[in-house]
Amino acid sequence: MHNFRWKISGVLLSSLLLFTATAQKKTIDQKVDSVLSLMTVEEKIGQLNQFNDNWRATGPVTVDNDKFNQIKNGQVGSLLNTLGTERTRSWQNVAMQSRLKIPLIFGQDVIHGYKTTFPIPLGEACSWDMDAIELTARVAATEASASGIHWTFAPMVDISRDPRWGRVMEGSGEDTYLGSKIAYARVKGFQGKSLGDTNSVMACVKHFAAYGAAIGGRDYNSVDMSDRTLWEVYLPPFKAAVDAGAATLMNAFNDINGVPSTGNKVLLRDILKGKWGFKGFVVTDWGTIGELVDHGYVANDYQAAQTAITAGADMDMESRCYKNNLAKLISDNKISINLLDDAVKRILKKKFELGLFDNPYKYCNPLRETNALNNNNHAKVAREAATKSIVLLKNEKNILPLSKNIKTIAFIGPLVKEVKQNKGFWDIDIPGADSSFIVSQWNGLQNKVGNNTNLLYAKGCEVDGDNKDGFAEAIAIAKQADVIILSIGEKRDMSGEAHSRSNINIPGIQEDLVKEMLATGKPVVVLINAGRPLVFNFTADNAPVILYTWWLGSEAGNAIADVLFGDYNPSAKITMTFPRVVGQIPFYYNHFNTGRPVVNEEDHVYKSSYRDIPSTPKYPFGYGLSYTTFGYSNLQLSKKKMAKKEKIEVSFTLTNTGNLDGEEIVQLYLRDKVSSLVRPIKELKDFTKLMLKAGESKTIKFVIDNEKLSFYNQQLIWDSEPGEFDLMIGASSEDIRLTDKFELVN
Ligand code: GLC
What we know:
The chain is α/β, with parallel strands linked by helices. Helix content is 32%, strand content 18%. The strands form 7 sheets. A 6-stranded mixed sheet has the order 11-16-15-14-12-13, sandwiched between helices. Strands 4-3-2-1-10 form a 5-stranded parallel sheet. Helix 1 packs across helix 14, helix 2 runs antiparallel to helix 13 and helix 7 packs parallel to helix 9 (236-243). The longest helix has 37 residues, at 2-38. The chain is globular. The two termini are 51 Å apart. The structure holds alpha-D-glucopyranose (GLC). Alpha-D-glucopyranose is lined by residues 58-59, 80, 109, 153, 206, 285-286, 497. Residues 58-59, 80, 109, 153, 206, 285-286, 497 line the site of alpha-D-glucopyranose.
């Protein structure tokens, strides 16, 4: 009887909870509907309108037509590039004077940190550390939300196989599997447990879609690809982000096969809002509705507005096409009011979920802002993220790690004493904040060595240009040193939006400086700072030690010093192929075999290759060294045949065979040997990163299931096909340590 009573009360309780939850969920939907029912058409259109504010124009500047009165009249739904609790409060005050007092939402490109700046995303991706990546997004959200920001235009999840494209710095590289994991982690980091939490911000997954496949790596250029490639390579990171609960997406600038993304109904309505069931809203990228005219897709802004709202673009960033045309489109019966209502409801719903209707000023607390922007723990997070992003490309004779007893170091190069350069593109200069929190590479070394090492400095040359006047001084101090550290590379604004480059060599005469430093006969450690994979064959072939330091953010100097002296054993591995020359691009690891693959480098006759260079990359996807070494052994598969509903357990032993503790990123690749469509020679299907003490061994386990064997077939159905698969366990996509085979059977 006792048990029975418990059961009854359990049923009652769960149904009461269900009712409350349902009632709670209905409350937001009902609130949205009741606000909508009060709105005029002009007020509805206002919610779809986003203007830029005064911090920075992150697009072609448009005329500012009296934001104040438009906000006061309820004709603006959102502002971007408004920073700080004071300014956001002042604009919110204006919105509260409107008839319905619908709060504004403030959006900002918090791409890799708000004040505390983390490595550029392409650098951070090299950590392969999802917890660390989620954590930096969490810290960024904490700082941004404390500064009045409700919404970050991140993560950028565009897969790219072309380092000429300046925006590779903003993404996670060339691999879909890894890029999807990172997209998921970043959304979780930005949005936290719930959008209603005050330290959560809405994510905005961008740029939907396939922006990273711009032909020639030229920004904003067209994209031309099969539906299968779109589905298999470029869409999955967006799906992962939607699955993570992303609140918003941003459509891309580019056309795909002739259809501009802003007007692409298949993309925005059929796939995103239909098949994927996305309930958030889509903001256009800057001005892209108006750009439908430039594309030649529509004749004028009136048609542009009609096309975009029909396709499913909900909010208009800075084109003014919605503001100027939607009312007429409705009165002309060119679009249904339902299209407008759907977009408005999506936007209002997010404002309710953020809690802004209850308290429009919940993100405008100046004391919280001060505390969040001066939180020492954030610097610690930034330093750890930065150390985990540094890729050790070369370390001949184990020159690194340096001894702390080293007497004299010559720190040379145009980036040694730079401060803001370390922040990379898409950094945020907080109005009124100084840059003293940014640790330059020079200061980082000073912090590390204290007084028992003599630090010498010379700039040597500029990043670009051909002036060698500084070489003599650099050579002179280099000759006095026990080791030379050379910091070279791009300027931070040589990558980023609208910064594609046809030539991705290290600029200027910096490699001549490398040559001079090597000529001194001293040990030379080269740091390469960049927002993309660069071409640097002389340095790669001749310098004994190379660290790829990307742009590491506000703790750059400390992180570089940690790695130079072994306080952190580098573990990062590149997530984008480094070509030998720009002519190899597009160049990526998971390519098809072709009918005439190069089998060995001596034989290029009638093979798919360039006759003037080797057919291999300079550095392959997944490559990166450590100060220790790792052994892979004892590969075992639980079985050699599996049916679709079954799984295969894979295990092997990883051993730290060196004399320093270190982390290894082990990678699982599969190859579908024969299928109805040709398949890549290998695809990353799993990975794990773990720390092993010197001499320690651990058993690593992976599980192969049907999902890992599937692909989009001729009918664009995600499915697997029976047949043989190669299994490869590697330290990189080229450094395959263990192999086996298994068969998928019907
Ligand atoms: C820019 C970028 C986009 C950014 C937006 C707002 O043009 O393409 O990524 O979020 O405008 O700054």
